[in-house]
Amino acid sequence: MDVARLARSTFFYHQARLLAPDPQAELKTAIAQIFSDSKARYGHRRVHLKLVAAGWQVAKKTVLKLMRQLGLRCPSRRRRRYVSFQGEVGNTAPNLLERQFTADAPNQKWVTDVTEFRIGDEKLYLSPVMDLFNRQIIAHSISRSPNLGLTSSSLRAALATLDNGETPIVHSDQGFQYQHASWRSLLAEAGATQSMSRRGNCYDNAVMENFFGHLKEEAFHHVHHLTIDALEIAINDYIAWFNNDRISETLKGMSPVQYRTQALAA
Known about the structure:
Number of helices: 10
């Protein structure tokens, strides 16, 4: 103590602090468990939402600080888009959505797009359809080729979920699949209305781009998939998790399915 030039009281105070149990040990355990359950996909905001839902009274800044202490970090996102536009191959539709990415009820506004995955020399393509009411992926298809069958398959599956009288706006980019007569025919038969982003403007379909970003950062870029088949299983598993378990601040701390169920029960 004399060498360190510390008062005796100061020395014994800090010694007691080092020997005392960690007052935040239980909270740290809860944070680590939530992070683990999310497969390292949750940042501090979603971890905070889960803690509050479990009855904890804790600030977001505290959660952020403790996650940093514990070395818990979700991966940062990288942008890489698959572009399906191939020039003027058919008729385009007006941008009816106009970046209004909210809906008052299910099946009013849908968005869709195609994204590409690559493992070595092999590629895989995903075509999901999302309901903007609760950001749920209501249908999706996966293929080794970004052909017409890929997008038509997901659209057919989505349209099959509609009740009588439901006629959503279906928004996409200007990819060749969405300009094709077969796509327009499916929409017309269901009474749905086609909408398209302006050419080269990904922000007109920002919600779907955001979903692709989360999917790739949380289940692809930082995960080693040995085969295309393994990747396909992982994508299907992720979409099920996204719909049923992944909470969102936009959805008041609920998953898409939870939010939809609560809204329809009200």
